[in-house]
Amino acid sequence: MYNYLTANEWTGPDEQMKVVKVILDNTKFAMFIQTHEGMPLRSVNLSVYEVVTVHVCPKNPFTVLIELPKSYDLVSG
After folding, report:
1. CATH code of residue 34
2. Is it the case that residue 25 has pLDDT exceeding 90?
3. How many domains is the chain partitioned into structurally?
């Protein structure tokens, strides 16, 4: 069973936010980002990182920043 959430992903100031599905697979210790329709966009193998930091916005707990070394994923649910 996968844990997932539907979110709006910010990809940059020149792009519109897009609806994505964020799937957390605890058996593979991985994160998969898909389009809202389920088409794969990218995956992240979390097991290769010593630290994965999740920042939760204090003003909006539905906005999180997933920080990996040299990489960021910002999602707003």
Report:
1. 2.30.29.30
2. no
3. 1
Q: Please give the residue range of the domain that contains residue 21.
A: 3-76
Burial string for 9-29 (b: 16+ CB within 10 Å, else e) reads bbeeeeeeeeebbbbeeeeee
What pTM was estimated for this model as a whole?
0.71
| Three-state SS at 13 | coil
Taking the C-alpha atoms of residue 67 and residue 72, their distance in angstroms, rounded to an integer, is 5
Helices (H) and strands (E) in the chain, counts: 0, 7
